[in-house]
Specification:
The two termini are about 35 Å apart. By secondary structure, this protein is of the alpha+beta class. It has helices at about 1-20, 35-40, 55-85, 90-100, 110-120, 125-140, 150-160, 160-165, 180-190, 195-200, 225-235, 270-285, 285-295, and strands at about 45, 50-55, 165-175, 215-220, 240-245, 250-260. Helix 7 crosses helix 12 (about 270-285). It has two domains: about 1-145 and about 275-295, no CATH class; about 165-260, Roll (Chitinase A, domain 3), CATH 3.10.50. It has 13 helices and six strands. The chain is flat, with a radius of gyration of 26 Å. The longest helix is centred in the N-terminal third of the chain and has 33 residues, at about 55-85. Strand 5 (about 240-245) and strand 6 (about 250-260) form a beta hairpin.
Length: about 300
């Protein structure tokens, strides 16, 4: 679920703001290297003739975000205690299934992990821990809530656009920097050259080029690919390519390898997702549950925080 990533990203974004704040000039109060020695603190950063002490850095962290971070840590402790009390466990299969869901729209598993690391500083271990926490929280929230088949069927009937059969396209593309480069590649395709080989040789998309430009099976309304690409792909037949198409990083040539239509009956995994979503709707706000569990286990903050 996207909510898992958003939860973690919110903390990391705050951390980024702290880092930005910490790199502002640090001596507008006349601080000197001698002051650092007097404080018994190591230098955390240096810019020009200015030095930011580790103590000042930590104080700024605590002042602005320390309480929120402590609450997040207490939440995790409280959820772990409640899960143990209720005999709730999270399996590796559940973790992998949730991660797989989060990876939808990425060209590969590696592309997903690289994006999370580059954009938000999240390692694989970080993502696994967040998924474990979220699943535990949801299981606790939905204890004792029963959703029957009739409720699931009703929900699916009320959301036909989401669960009716729809097309999926097996796509590949070649991206280049300039339009004339794309036109030259199109000419070579028209003369019978292999799309995959041209992608390996010329595509600028590092995630797909080694796989011959393959993007894999994507929904016909995939939100993660440029709309110009998807609109064009929907209008051509298997075995055809089209372009040049203007995309954010240059120009693209799209190739439709195959088209398939999904079954009209939602698979069991989809029905289980609907069941879980309906249960969560009945459970109420998860942040209230976190607050209640902190209280249940006697959580309290004893640290002092510098005044703003």
């Amino acid at each position: 679920m996207a909510a898992v990533v958003v939860l973690t990203i919110s903390v990391l974004v705050l951390g980024g703001l702290i880092g930005y704040r910490g790199l502002q000039p640090a001596r507008d109060n006349g601080e000197t290297d001698a002051d650092l020695k007097d404080e018994g603190s190591h230098a955390a950063a240096i810019i020009g003739d200015d030095t930011i002490s580790e103590q000042k850095w930590v104080e700024e962290l605590k002042k602005r975000y320390g309480k929120n971070m402590l609450l997040e840590m207490l939440n995790r402790k409280a959820i772990a205690l409640e899960a143990k009390s209720q005999g709730i466990q999270v399996t590796q299969e559940e973790i992998q299934e949730r991660l797989k869901k989060q990876m939808e729209g990425y060209v590969s598993e590696e592309a997903y992990y690289e994006e999370m690391q580059n954009q938000f500083g999240l390692s694989r271990d970080d993502l696994v821990l967040e998924v474990m926490y979220r699943i535990s929280l949801e299981k606790i929230a939905t204890l004792g809530i029963h959703i029957d088949d009739q409720q699931v069927n009703s929900y699916i009937r009320e959301h036909p656009d989401e669960y009716n059969s729809h097309k999926q396209l097996d796509l590949a593309w070649i991206t280049v920097d300039k339009q004339d480069e794309a036109e030259k590649i199109l000419d070579r395709l028209d003369k019978g050259e292999d799309f995959a080989e041209l992608a390996r040789s010329y595509s600028t998309d590092q995630f797909s080029k080694d796989n011959g430009g393959s993007l894999g099976w994507t929904d016909e309304d995939d939100p993660f690919l440029p709309e110009t690409v998807m609109k064009t792909a929907r209008g051509i037949n298997p075995g055809e390519s089209a372009g040049p198409l203007k995309v954010p990083n240059g120009y693209a040539i799209v190739y439709v390898k195959d088209i398939r239509t999904e079954d009209t009956e939602p698979p069991q995994e989809i029905r289980q997702e609907v069941r879980q979503e309906l249960a969560l709707q009945q459970a109420g706000p998860l942040d209230e549950l976190e607050k209640n569990l902190r209280s249940k286990y006697g959580a309290r903050i004893t640290a002092d925080f510098p005044s703003s």
